[in-house]
Design brief:
Tumour_necrosis_fac-like_dom (chains A, B, C); Cerebellin_Synaptic_Org (chains A, B, C); homotrimer; five-stranded antiparallel beta sheet; signal (chains A, B, C); mainly beta; secreted (chains A, B, C)
């Protein structure tokens, strides 16, 4: 699980969000904090969960969970205030597949651990 | 995991929501996209997660995760804007039990993958 | 999984929230409903998920998932209306570690099963 650092203004789609620290790294995990990208080293069924805190400083927050280049699930808020945006997915990954978050809008709450990205291997292939 | 299609106006409780497509189907899964209903074929402990995007076009969104006829967990939003409503449950199911979502209010974001319903078998009985 | 009862005014941080009932108790689980505290009896990797419904009766809802005394992940909303706040974490726990929720602000929707706290053992050590 990687807690998200303040992402500044990651802006455009397709750019992985950097992480701040990792609370738990599971066996076989390849999660690169600098890019916020998980690269699959053991093929199988994985579960991913994210939760982001929309800051009041942007008009919307749109978060995408991506497998390679494709959006799998997303979360969207147009709240004018701080608000939580959460989502999850069960994904079958082959070795080399990547999973990461992209977003537009601003997140807050990094100091309060209000943004997170977690995942785990459910069944090896 | 079934991404939800635009549900039109599913309205009244007790009516399963149709799905649009399935990203991952796990072994032993019986998920009927037409009705959005999961029917348990292997008894055991399951995990379910959902996330729906409330549209600005209804005054509230109320989503229920049901086991057979009972509400297990729900999510509720009275936002006037687009907003994410997420929930999850760990459930023990016997063969033949059904799990599905019902809701009142309108969801948006189907085109953006912002509504999803996922589940997996955690431990067979 | 423990569905949350109406917590009255649990207020200050560091006080576990009482639960109302438990839908599923997994083998090896030690979850005390009176205090809402999970105590680890089998060391390993666990997954926890929570979802709370912010009531319109408080200006904010701030929910913390804690391991022992530390905040692992949190959820925050400043909605003026009913709103769902969800989060999750993958945690490695040693025997005797505790996991529980704390919060400030008011939750609603207890009658509607809109607040929940779930967890499961993913891999024993």
């Amino acid at each position: 699980m990687g807690e998200r650092g303040a992402p500044g203004d990651p802006g455009a789609d397709g750019i992985g969000l950097p992480g701040k620290h990792t609370a738990t790294l599971l066996p076989g995990t390849s999660f690169e904090l600098e890019t916020g990208t998980f690269t699959c080293s053991v093929s199988g069924t994985f579960v991913f969960m994210f939760s982001m805190n929309k800051s009041s400083s942007s008009s919307s927050l749109y978060v995408q969970l991506r497998k390679n280049d494709d959006v799998v699930v997303s979360g969207y808020s147009r709240a004018s205030h701080y608000e939580q945006v959460s989502g999850s997915a069960v994904l079958f990954l082959q070795q080399g597949d990547t999973v990461y978050l992209t977003m537009s809008g601003n997140v807050g709450g990094a100091a309060n651990h209000a943004t997170s990205f977690s995942g785990f291997l459910l069944y090896p292939e």
